[in-house]
Amino acid sequence: MRKIAFMLAALLSMAAAVPAFAEMADAQKDECVLASRNCKNAVDDIQTQIKRIDAEVKKGTAVYTPAELKKLEQKLAEVKELLNNMEKH
């Protein structure tokens, strides 16, 4: 009886730990850069935006899906283009 209770307690604790591991992987993503979510009063200048997005792209597939990386690379290209347009004028 004791053995069954111990195994049940271990099973329940492992089931509770699985979502925590999923949250840890998501915590490495910068949702503000990726999807404009969780931006706590983040107003960056263009150079800072470029550095942040570039840092996220460098994390690669260890953190982001290929689709997310493509989105980040597109945002990086857009911000760089904006900077180039501003420098011309």
Please write out the topology.
Elements: H1 2-27, H2 31-35, H3 46-59, H4 66-88
Number of strands: 0
Approximate helicity band: over 70%
Average pLDDT level:
75
Taken together, the total number of domains comes to 1
| Quaternary status | single chain
* Strand proportion: under 5%
Gross geometry: elongated
Structural class: mainly alpha
**Annotation field: number of helices:** 4
Question: In words, what does this structure look like?
Answer:
With 89 residues, the protein is an all-alpha fold. It has one domain (2-88). 76% of the residues lie in helices and 0% in strands. The termini are far apart. Residues 18-24 have low confidence and may be disordered. Residues 1-22 form the signal peptide. Keywords: Signal.
Q: Summarize this, please?
A:
By secondary structure, the protein is mainly alpha-helical.
Structural descriptors:
about 90 residues, mainly alpha, 4 helices, about 75% helix, elongated, signal
